[in-house]
Amino acid sequence: MKLKVIATLLLAILTASPVLAASADDDGSLDEFQTRFGSEWRQIRHDAKRNITTWMRQEDGKTFRSFKVQAELEGSMEAVARLMLDFPGYDKWYWQVMESKLLKQVSPTEYVVYVVHRAPAGLPERDVVLRGVVIPQSRSQKMLTLKIIADPDYLPLKPPRVRMPAQEITSRFQPLENGKVLLETEGYVDPGGKVPLWAANFVQRSAPYAIVVAMQRRLKSGDYDQGKPLPFPVYDSGDYRQTVSR
């Protein structure tokens, strides 16, 4: 009972924002604190209505759990790419983002981004410097791949914020014949500093689902259907005509 009371209090704190609230109705969420994960992927949630499925596992040598998510996004590949490159707009859909900005565009397909995350009550904010590399589509490669890795030494520390030492995420986007985009993401995040293990695992369990729900909403808004030309080619389904040439 004591464990359930603690977990319920944490749930109340973490679901204070609209984005987090999307994951609050997940049945069996308290089982997370009572179950030991192995190295095999274990399904956490399957939302048939939104076409979102999430998994978690505990990899050898890693303190926190890794996650995997598969979902269908309603939008074009061009809109998805614009969403991912709208770095100042991450606060509208990414997990508890307070601030995000582009530090450097190394090339048309490589970016350095600074992100600040809110933390649960009583814990300091987290910040992270991310290097993102895009592997574009081609006429022989339908998937667009985005690889993200943390670069904690890129900027001096900014106390009292805690620098996140690790964020390793690979996202693959593939156009489907039904006009949607298939998203497949695997990742690992280390929030750094002193965080109760069960609290961090709860966030990592909830965040992938909440992020995808918010992505779906942003794409449905139509805000990313038009805009400046993308810096790399993007193809939709069918005959894979190039929708953006330069």
TrEMBL record:
The signal peptide stretch is 1-21
* Superkingdom: Bacteria
Instruction: Print the keywords alphabetically.
Output: Signal
InterPro entries, alphabetized: START-like_dom_sf (IPR023393)
Designated name of the protein? START domain-containing protein
